[in-house]
Amino acid sequence: MLAIVAAVLFLIAFLINAADIATNDIFTSVNFMLVGLALLALHVAGIGSGWAARGRRR
């Protein structure tokens, strides 16, 4: 789930950068990319994955 949100943020950052949209200091393409990278790092770390391998039940 976090990887999907990160991909959407990367898309928004790309569109802001490609269209050369003037935004305020908070909504810049670099900030969107940094938040996307943080979410991607959390996804790779296993946070927010939903399923956890806790062992086998018999």
From TrEMBL:
Keywords: Membrane, Transmembrane, Transmembrane helix. The chain crosses the membrane at residues 34-53. This is Secreted protein. It comes from the Bacteria. It comes from Streptomyces daghestanicus.
